[in-house]
């Protein structure tokens, strides 16, 4: 054997790839990221359904003439139809800025990640009432 083969075999023994600790650490990190995404995704889907319901209400009804209570009840009916039952209608408020009127729907959703750790997602939606 020449010196080049000995050095080559020696360096090959030292390069065995990632350690078990590194692989486990990466799997735990990937698992936490996937779990977080799976816990947060329904909140974004529910918000998207709510925004689409409001946009449908704006397009189809006399939205400018509706009172806040009528908007709340119409939105609540639409959300119940889509299977969203835990939305608080008191989050629908009328906001005035000068001569402009807006319907604001601002709320937060909490998703339990594990043990006592929660993920909080905040949504702020504004719809023009003019």
From TrEMBL:
It comes from the Bacteria. InterPro entries: DUF4845 (IPR032314). Keywords: Membrane, Transmembrane, Transmembrane helix. The chain crosses the membrane at residues 20-45. This is DUF4845 domain-containing protein. It comes from SAR86 cluster bacterium.
């Amino acid at each position: 054997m020449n010196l080049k083969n000995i050095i080559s075999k020696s360096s090959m023994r030292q390069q065995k790839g990632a350690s078990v600790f590194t692989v486990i650490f990466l799997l735990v990190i990937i698992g936490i990221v996937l779990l977080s995404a799976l816990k947060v995704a329904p909140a974004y889907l529910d918000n998207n359904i709510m925004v689409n319901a409001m946009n449908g209400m704006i397009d189809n009804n006399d939205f400018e003439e509706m009172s806040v209570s009528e908007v709340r009840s119409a939105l609540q009916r639409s959300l119940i139809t889509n299977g969203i039952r835990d939305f608080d209608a008191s989050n629908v408020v009328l906001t005035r800025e000068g001569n402009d009127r807006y319907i604001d729907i601002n709320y937060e959703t909490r998703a339990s990640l594990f043990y006592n750790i929660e993920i909080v997602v905040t949504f702020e939606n504004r719809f023009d009432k003019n």
